[in-house]
Amino acid sequence: MEKTHKSINSFTEGVVWKQLLIFFFPLLFGTFFQQLYNTADAIVVGRYVGKEALSAVGGSTGTIINLFVGFFVGISSGATVTISQFFGANNEEKVSDAVHTSIALAIAGGAIIMLIGILGAPAALKWMGTPDEIMTYSLQYIRIYFAGMIANLIYNMGSGILRAIGDSKRPLYFLIISCIVNIILDILFVVVFKWEVIGVAVATVISQIVSAILVCLSLIKTTESYRLDIRKLKINNGLLQKIISIGLPAGVQSLMYSSSNIVVQSSINSFGTDTIAAWTAYAKIDGIFWMILGAFGIAATTFVAQNYGAGKNDRVRIGVKTSLIMSMGTSILLTITLYISGPHLFKLFTTSNSVTDIGLNLLYFTVPFYCSFVPIEILSGSLRGLGNTLIPMIMTGIGVCALRVMWILIAVPIWPSIITVMMSYPITWIVTSILFVIYYIYYTKKENI
User: Fold this and answer.
1) What's this model's pTM, rounded to 2 decimal places?
2) Quick check: is 8 in a domain?
3) Domain-embedded: residue 5
């Protein structure tokens, strides 16, 4: 029988910080390539088509796409936690059942989201106040993107399965390959064939299909407990309930984030095309922080889930503290780096000085507050690893989403400026981080963890 233990990182043994970093760096590089994957579209259309096309691939369209994809990724985190706990407990039969249920869920979810996205895109873009000059581009991009949603969700779920058993390397390799495919096709379709926004959308879908095929092949070819057998694809109702009970609050939490960001995007749309383009470029740069912190959050979730499943609460406590320290230090370093390199980064996206100036104002205002978000990401990920997602969802809903929407609806009309809009982020981060610290201390004491 083939063994793949070299690609599996069991968190239940070994030095905690080393185990976390061994898992973290492939995740980080993977999310880097995911970011590069998305950024390539923006760079190519921003420089070879124009600021209207740049606005179309990252403004309202990006927010709507994140709404749906983020919700499903939240749901899939329930599968990751479930499989991690079974894997930590050495329950191979349950691991196998959970894998097949998860992939079946990804196929069904992808089909539903594809139809909703394609049919509902025009109404959603109009509701968000998308300017007329970018509406055609936006519709072209978002409809083609949603056409590839099944492949997108299969890749996300398959990668989550591999990460659940401690393998963060293969998802990285698959992302690198699909990223290279995406960049080559972006250049071919836009620069050579002159397909404009349609070109980057088609390139994105093709590269997502490539990544989905690769992750499925890796699951099919293994002989370990997480092996995928297409003939066994079906939903186990008991496991689906467990996955949903853990993942749904995380999905709703992501949905609330995205919904509040829709309100923010609608407010930004009112400031015109230059500001939308600047926001799009800023979001790609700002994504560096989210990819790093997201990698720490996933590492914390998997570490906590495996050790909690194995009954090693002491390692759970050490893992959470270590994750907080490492992510806080990284956030401080990144703040300094982006302050220095900001002007050069914006030149990658646009040749417009006005767009660059607006973008730099957004960047310089936001990055000093990065550290205030760290407790939210790490502690919510850790609580998810423990199987507790309902209360974190409620705290996020109140502390981030409701407060952010209230700020946009009340403060922005009084002080109408892009900086007033941006103030909604640090204010809600600080409030929600305080809530998470208090609740995490209370919950772990109550559960003797």
Assistant:
1) 0.73
2) no
3) no
